[in-house]
Amino acid sequence: MCLCARSGPPTLHIECRVKKCPGQLVAGVAHEINNPVASSFISGNINHASGYVQDLLELLALYQNKFPNPGSEIEEKIKDIELD
């Protein structure tokens, strides 16, 4: 528990917790990256993820062939994400 939570009003307690959360998130992500269990989980699923991405790219190619003029909003997004 934060020191500010013990002595201040409830709003100060909330502010203290909000400031603390990003640090805990970063620490958790760093732990998962360095954790061998997480590494084996990621490497064990990379082939599945690659297959899913390939399927989505094929579906996208079909859409591009069927709808060659998608409109300005979609064309702008294609430029933004540098989709070729």
Quick recap:
Helix content is 83%, strand content 0%. The chain has helices at 3-7, 10-34, 36-66, 72-80.
Description:
The protein is an all-alpha fold. The protein folds into two domains: 1-34, no CATH class; 49-84. Helices cover 83% and strands 0% of the residues. It is built from four helices and no strands. The chain is flat, with a radius of gyration of 23 Å. The mean pLDDT is 77.
Number of strands: 0
Distance between the termini: 50 Å
- What portion of residues belong to β-strands? under 5%
Largest sheet descriptor = none
N to C succession of SSEs: HHHH
Overall mean pLDDT stands at: 77
- If you compute it from the alpha carbons, what radius of gyration comes out, rounded to the nearest whole angstrom? 23 Å
What overall form do the CA principal axes indicate? Answer: flat
Helix content, binned percent: over 70%
**What is the number of helices?**
4
Structural class: mainly alpha
Low-confidence region ranges: none
**What's the number of domains?**
2
